[in-house]
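[Protein data]
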Amino acid sequence: MQVKVGKSKNTSAEAAVKEATGGISSAAGILFQSPFELLEEVSALLAEKYPGTPIIGTGGTSYIEADATDKILIVVAFESGATCKAGALRYLSSSPLYDIVGLENAISEVRPGSQDCVCLEFCTNDEERLVTSMNVALEKAKVPILGGTVFGTPSGKTSKVCVNGELYEDACAYMLVKNNSGKIRTYSENIYAMPENAKTHVATKVDLAKKELCTLDNKPAADVYANELGISRSGIVDNVFKNPLGRIVGDDTYIISQYEVSPNGGLVNYKKVCENDTICILELQDYRAINERTRDRIKSECGKISFIYSVNCIYRHLFFTNERYLSTFLTDMARLGNHVGIVGGGEQYKKQHVNQTMVCAVFE
């Protein structure tokens, strides 16, 4: 599979598209990431330049080489050896299955094989509904979801995703990418773990609409968290980099990022918690060693790498920035192969919406 990546920091949408697509004559599919202020114009220009080509995109902070910026246009072209189909799932907040037939038809046309297809996506909201809805179609075909929630939309503006030149709110833009000449492997990296002898708790009251965990073990969730770690309520939000919450499902733990303490002592999070979920407080691990193990695993499992696409949580991005480690992290990812990433407000991976995680797809 051949993948070309173009970039431009030009502030003119027309000039940026011309520069970023300079080496792209045709493509089976195009994914783009744009500065928010250029999103609508870039989307229209790409659709005009590549009529009939599946195209998805959004605005955000992009990773390329050792650079992290929201002032760059990145265009990823899946070329020879790829089969792509794109579409939108609209009305996520009210009718997330409204467009599911379109996704089912796209899967039939792509005809996924074994470990050769991935569904890349950008979404604006209602991630748990989205993941459940998409898997109505994708699970049967054994195609994994890998994507992120749009993050960094300017204040007063609405988050949007793009499909084939059209902009959508309250929606998901997806692209099925099949590698006709190799594998596509997906990875999820978690730099937090349950401490030894960790206490587990039961979510006894939640507010799903607000993503609020009201009580744990019938006590205010903020008090349970603060008492267990020996901190004050006022320190809970800032402590998210060291000790996020975790939802335990079998042998897996999915990260939940708290960002607000409600007046009644609940914890408002970026991921929904359901009643009777098993919850624990996680602990930061040696993230440098974990990053290295992830890269070693990718190198050992993948043959010739043509492209790596990643979604890195905003909280990981901020934590790595505070630790003055972000540039090292990006440089190490680029050493694996041709790498492009985006900062997400949440990450969708297979059957879960998660926080404070990196997910990536590796294309042979």
